[in-house]
Amino acid sequence: MNHLLSIKDLSPEQIHGLIDLAKTLKADYIPYQDALKGKSVVTLFEKPSLRTRVSFDIGINKLGGHCLYLDQQNGAIGQREAVKDFAMNLSRWCDAIVARVFSHQTLEELAEYATVPVVNSLSDLYHPCQGLADFLTLSEHYDDLSQVKLGYIGDGNNVTHSLMYAAAKLGATMVVVCPPGHFPDGQVVTEAQAIAAEHGGALVLSSDLAALEGVDALYADTWISMGDNTPMAAIKAKFQPYQINSKLMSLTGAKYVLHCQPAHREVEITSEVMDSDASLILDQAENRMHIQNAILLELMKD
C-alpha cells in the first residue's frame, strides 16, 4: 500500500489484514502508543465533518502522532495554488496526507505528486475508510464475512461504491435497492460485479424492496448528498418507500441496521430502528477511528 484512494485497489488479504489490525488496536492501544511518535499527518477538509475529523485527530493522538487540520480558509485546494504544488510542499513537512474533498480527481493529483501516503477520507466517488469500518463492524458479529448478505437501500453514492467493492473483494453478497434513476455509477457496478464473481460473491441491484428479503443487515445513507439543493419534499416523494423502519426490518428479516451518519431521523431511518438493539450505528462510528489507525500504520510502517 502506497496510498488508499479506493477499496478497489486493495486485495482481500489486505482488507482482512486491516480489519485484524484494527481489532488489535481496539482491544489495546498501549503497545502502539508511540507507533507514530515524531510523525505528523495533515488532514485536508473541503467539506464539513464530525466523525472523520474527530476520529482521525484523536486516533492519530492515540498512536503518538501529531495531526494538523487544514480547512479552506487559505483558499480552495487547486484554486489558490495548483494541487501539484500543494502535494509537493506538504510532502516536505508531513508524513501523510488525509484528504476529504469534493472531486476524486483532487485526490488522484495529490497521490500523483505527493511523496508521502495519501488517504481518501471522502470524495464524490468513494469513501473507503467508511466502507472498511463497516465491514470491521460486521466482522464483530460474523466470523466469515464471505457469508454475510448486506442490503443497502436508498441513493447510490460514494458510500455505496465503497461497500460494493469491499463486499466483492471479500466474497460477500450485497443487494442494492434504489429508486429508479438513483443507482450507483454504472462503471463501478460493472467492476464490482466482476470482482464479486472472481471471489465467490454476488452483487444484485433492484428497485424492488422484496430483493432485500434474507439480508443479515440493512444499510442506509442520507437521501440527499451534501451540496445538493433538491427540495426535501421532492426527495421524500421519491424515497419514502425506501425508509428503514420496523416494518422493513420485519419484512427483510435483517438482524442489524447500519448508517454511516449524519442521519436524518424519521427521514431515511426512523428513531425507533436507529436506537434499537439492532443498531450497529455507533459501533460503526467508533470503528472509523480504529480502521483509520490501521490504515495509517500500514501506510507509514516503513
Q: How does this structure look, described?
A:
This is Ornithine carbamoyltransferase. This protein has 302 residues and is of the alpha/beta class. It folds into two domains: 3-127 and 288-300, Rossmann fold (3-Layer(aba) Sandwich); 130-284, Rossmann fold (3-Layer(aba) Sandwich). Helices cover 41% and strands 15% of the residues. It contains eleven helices and nine strands. The strands form two sheets. It has a five-stranded parallel beta sheet. α3 (83-91) crosses α4 and α5 (128-139) packs across α6 (158-170).
Key terms:
single chain, 302 residues, alpha/beta, Rossmann fold, 2 domains, five-stranded parallel β-sheet, globular, ornithine carbamoyltransferase activity, OTCase_ArgI, Ornithine carbamoyltransferase, amino acid binding
How would you sum up this structure in a few lines?
It comes from Ferrimonas balearica (strain DSM 9799 / CCM 4581 / KCTC 23876 / PAT). With about 300 residues, this protein is an alpha/beta fold.
Class computed from helices, strands and strand pairing: alpha/beta
Low-confidence stretches: none
Helix content: 40-55%
For the record, the CATH class of the largest domain is Alpha Beta
N to C succession of SSEs: HEHEHEHEHEHEHEEHHEHH
The oligomeric state is single chain
Determine the N-to-C terminus distance. 11 Å
Provide the residue-averaged pLDDT: 96
Number of domains: 2
What portion of the residues fall into strands of 2 or more residues? 5-15%
